[in-house]
Design goal:
alpha/beta; single chain
Length: about 290
């Protein structure tokens, strides 16, 4: 089963839309999609068949159509966020075809951080509502926590230690992982607070995916060792520890500084989507998948 995981990254998420458009048009058939933060939004819209609409929305988006700075300073002592994201709340509630999601051939798995129980929780197509998606993308301090039932939730990317595990549990044997920062190391030290914040966010949003991939690679190597000793490879085909191919899709260039996570621009979104499509096609060709 082919699966894709979409990482978090705020306004950089337009890059993921470009990747999805290329992957779902010309790549191997995708049956499962996972995501956290903005990746959760993109995953749900892909599953409801609204990918083209999503691309159009990104290209006509601006920051104030997603969130605004809070101005009710007389309530400062009771603030739980710096921004008001009711515009995003309304768009998720009213514009997503939620009735399609439980019946979609594309299964969805998203996560959110339960700050009541201090755990990460996974939600699937049959569970997901606009509140779950809003919770998964509620960046702490910037956006308010979201109540679901008796519990409060924030961005799932901040507590997701094994982001690929739900996809593995669902039966994926090839996973495309989409990152929102380049693969190459940053050799120069940060020269100011903004650059430091950019590096910290990149670590938070991508390190768990890389660690999960490392664990999968180690499992693959162990399976290869056992096969070399004469064990039938079919023994592992339906086991939890089975061979899994992980294919990473990284941006071929920097997507911007720390402001690129927060500032939403239609022109920038179009540029990122085009880059995502180009990078995805390059990866598909490299792996002989088109």
């Amino acid at each position: 089963m082919n699966a894709v995981f979409l990482s978090g990254g705020g306004a950089r998420g337009a890059y993921e839309v470009g990747v999805l458009r290329a992957l779902m048009k010309d790549g191997p058939p995708i049956k499962l999609i996972g995501g956290a933060s903005v990746g959760a939004i993109n995953a749900v819209l892909a599953a409801t068949g609204q990918l083209d609409e999503l691309a159009e929305v990104w290209q006509n988006m601006s920051t104030f159509k997603v969130y605004r700075p809070r101005l009710d300073v007389w309530k400062l002592r009771t603030w739980t966020s710096l921004f008001d994201n009711r515009a995003l709340f309304k768009r998720l509630r009213d514009e997503v075809h939620w009735a399609r999601l439980p019946h979609s051939p594309l299964q969805v798995v998203i996560s959110a951080t339960n700050i009541t129980l201090r755990t990460n929780e996974i939600f699937t197509s049959s569970d997901i509502t606009y509140r779950h998606v809003l919770a998964s993308s509620a960046i702490p301090i910037l956006f308010p926590p979201v109540r679901i039932g008796k519990h409060w939730y924030i961005d799932g990317a901040f507590s997701l230690l094994r982001p690929l595990k739900p996809l593995l549990n669902a039966g994926a044997d090839r996973i495309f992982t989409v990152f929102l920062s380049p693969r190459r190391p940053r050799l120069r030290p940060p020269s100011n607070l903004f650059q430091l914040a950019d590096r910290v966010l990149e670590v938070i949003l991508s390190s768990s995916i890389s660690a999960d991939r490392k664990q999968i690679d180690n499992t693959n190597q162990e399976i290869e060792r056992l096969v070399s000793l004469g064990i039938d490879p079919d023994t592992f085909r339906h086991k939890p520890y089975r061979p899994v191919k992980v294919i990473a899709i990284y941006p071929s260039r920097d997507l911007g500084n720390v402001g690129s996570y927060l500032i939403v621009s239609g022109d920038k979104a179009k540029e990122l989507m085009e880059l995502g499509m180009t990078d995805c096609y390059r990866v598909l060709k490299r792996h002989n998948l088109i």
